[in-house]
User: What shape does this take?
Amino acid sequence: MAQEPAAPVDAPGWINKGVQEYKSARYTEAVESFQKAVELNPNDMAAHLYLGTAWMMQYIPGGESAENSEMARQAEAEFTRVFQVEPNNLVALNSLASLMYQQAQGTLDAEQKSRKLDESASWYERVIAVDPANKEANYSLGVIQWAKWYPAWMRARAELGMRPEDPGPLRDPARQQLKQKYTSMLEQGISYLERRCKSIRNIQTRWPI
Assistant: This one.
């Protein structure tokens, strides 16, 4: 009979085991392995990143169970731990930004959704502070600005009795009210998207496809 493989004896061994479990989509087992690695070596930031990622992969945006919320909380705690030790760690920063965005997408409450989008944006801005040309962060910031504008635009159209096929523009005073409130935000969103396009063009210039 085949023998069970021996359990790892050190943190790197548990990380290797967790990575294999993660690649096999066995996220619960991966969490257990990465947790053992963290317990054996609390100062290993890579272990905390792996553990946070394994927690986040199990989080379901919009899920209302206490277990689902706990997965998001555990993931945030691990990424925050890394950020506190290594403020410029791009994996931790991107992961926190992505987690907040997922939480925003999963909530129906408009105020809470807006707050989570703001939190996500603040983390993506930290990414850009470390890596100004980061195309994912610039794109995500542009999307977040649009996500905050779009519901207001659709609400204004509905209040004016406009049908989906009506091209617009909106009639005043709704048009002027939206323009006054959102123009600056939309211009900022466009600038983020332009930076993202510029980053892609620079990459293509260096590595022609």
